[in-house]
């Protein structure tokens, strides 16, 4: 059902000009090491964002009224004289980024915007600083041509990469400010088959630690003849929670999972999965644990050991029985699963399996969310994608990753879609994070066209 791009020549030219004019700002934005986990670069980044919105004529407010939170930046722009003042679109982005480590795997400085091989390379260029500049460039181009076709709101947080712990209180306190008819989420883009994806939700997540203690001090390893140790207890206990194909062996884990609607199942059935490209992009060495990876990514819950530590791992020899060990785990969840309850079920399962000496401590979590795929705005987003990207468009019920969409959905009560400029090789969170320049430009055109279609709907 190829539909030719409707973007006018004047608007396309204005978008190209806005992207070029914004390149120094993009470089400055990316140059700041805004790592929430290290409490770095927050205020400097907020200042750059404020100035960026002010130069568009936006009304900007920095919310510092959520205790313990990094600042939220809120900006509004009214519809132009020919726009629809009865329609409001809210954009969500985040300004924090992942740490750049391991630094020795970067081919260029991670906080210097580098253009090579048709790509922009820097930490945050795909997740998610670059996406904001795509959107602001689209806004500037519309202002310089047809005018804004609807009211716009932007909300930016600075803690997404540490789990968005203050989003829920922020949305409750500022629900009236956030009111909108639809929400466009932080990022998105193309899959390994170059299909542009319109993604309508996220998986949930539950993060927790599991600890083991077997003695008051490390012991000589010769005592292993009759003394157990914390590391063995931990790995043996964790091994009882998951089957060989990734199935979660925790009683009650899948209780309450909402079945897919016929529309959601149909959307999953039309998704493609490029195994060869996926293996190459990530350098995968092991067989897949699902024979339906596209469906598993969307609707399969998981339990994952993120890291494990204990004992001695340094140079030379130190033959000890470690007294304690610790692992961090997460579960990716689907609608109907409660994050904190999941951690309670894991503790109960360890107890049942004979590992009551292992202790589960809950860190934080986010529930899953899916928009109604039949919603008018979702369909507008898909139709617009066909106008810009042709037939290479897929409707995706939810991403495999997580994010704080549920609090927005509860407070704003509007559909949420994720769209953007990334591609399967963008490497978000990895060294040499990148976007392709052509995708960057195309995403700006899509954003402008989506705003026009939304305003006219």
UniProtKB/TrEMBL annotation:
* Coiled coil location: none
Q: Which UniProt keywords apply?
A: Hydrolase, Metal-binding, Protease
Annotated GO biological processes are: lysine biosynthetic process via diaminopimelate; proteolysis
One GO molecular-function entry? peptidase activity
| Residue ranges of domain Peptidase M20 dimerisation in the record | 201-353
Q: Which InterPro entries match?
A: Cyt/Met_Dipeptidase, Peptidase_M20, Peptidase_M20_dimer
Q: Which domain of life is it from?
A: Bacteria
One Pfam family in the UniProt entry: Peptidase_M20
Give Gene Ontology CC terms: cytosol
* PANTHER family associated with the record: BETA-ALA-HIS DIPEPTIDASE, DI- AND TRIPEPTIDASE DUG2-RELATED
Protein name in UniProt: Acetylornithine deacetylase succinyl-diaminopimelate desuccinylase-like protein
């Amino acid at each position: 059902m190829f539909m030719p791009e409707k973007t006018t020549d004047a608007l396309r030219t204005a978008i190209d000009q806005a992207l070029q004019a914004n390149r120094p700002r993009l470089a400055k934005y990316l140059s700041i090491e805004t790592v929430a986990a290290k409490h770095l670069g927050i205020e400097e980044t907020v200042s750059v964002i404020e100035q960026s919105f002010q130069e568009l004529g936006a009304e900007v407010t920095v919310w510092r009224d959520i205790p313990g939170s990094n600042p939220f930046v809120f900006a509004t722009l009214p519809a132009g004289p020919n726009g629809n003042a009865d329609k409001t679109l809210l954009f969500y982005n985040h300004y924090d980024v992942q740490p750049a480590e391991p630094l020795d795997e970067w081919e260029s400085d991670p906080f210097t915007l580098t253009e090579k091989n048709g790509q922009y390379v820097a930490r945050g260029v795909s997740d998610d600083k670059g996406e904001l500049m795509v959107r602001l460039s689209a806004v500037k181009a519309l202002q310089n041509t047809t005018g804004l076709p609807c009211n716009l709101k932007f909300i930016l947080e600075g803690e997404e990469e540490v789990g968005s712990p203050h989003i829920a209180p922020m949305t409750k306190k500022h629900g009236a400010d956030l009111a909108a008819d639809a929400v466009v989420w932080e990022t998105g883009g193309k899959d390994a088959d170059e299909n542009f994806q319109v993604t309508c939700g996220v998986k949930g997540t539950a993060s927790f630690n599991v600890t083991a203690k077997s003695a008051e001090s490390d012991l000589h390893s010769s005592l292993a003849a009759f003394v157990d140790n914390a590391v063995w207890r931990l790995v043996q206990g964790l091994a009882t929670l998951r089957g060989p194909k990734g199935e979660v062996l925790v009683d009650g884990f899948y209780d309450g999972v909402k079945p897919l609607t016929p529309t959601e199942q149909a959307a999953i059935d039309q998704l493609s999965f490029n195994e060869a490209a996926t293996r190459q992009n990530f350098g995968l060495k092991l067989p897949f644990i699902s024979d339906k990876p596209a469906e598993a990514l969307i609707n399969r819950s998981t339990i994952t050991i993120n890291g494990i530590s204990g004992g001695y791992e340094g140079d030379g020899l130190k033959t000890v029985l470690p007294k304690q060990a610790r692992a961090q785990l997460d579960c990716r969840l689907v609608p109907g699963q409660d994050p904190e309850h999941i951690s309670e079920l894991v503790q109960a399962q360890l107890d049942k399996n004979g590992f009551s000496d292992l202790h589960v401590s809950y860190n934080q979590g986010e529930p899953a969310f899916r928009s109604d795929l039949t919603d008018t705005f979702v369909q507008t987003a898909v139709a617009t994608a066909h106008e810009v990207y042709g037939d290479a468009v897929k409707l995706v019920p939810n991403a495999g990753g997580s994010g704080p969409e549920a609090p927005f959905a509860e407070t704003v009560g509007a559909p949420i879609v994720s769209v953007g400029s990334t591609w399967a090789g963008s490497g978000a969170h990895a060294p040499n994070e990148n976007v392709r320049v052509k995708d960057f430009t195309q995403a700006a055109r899509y954003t402008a066209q989506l705003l026009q279609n939304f305003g006219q709907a």
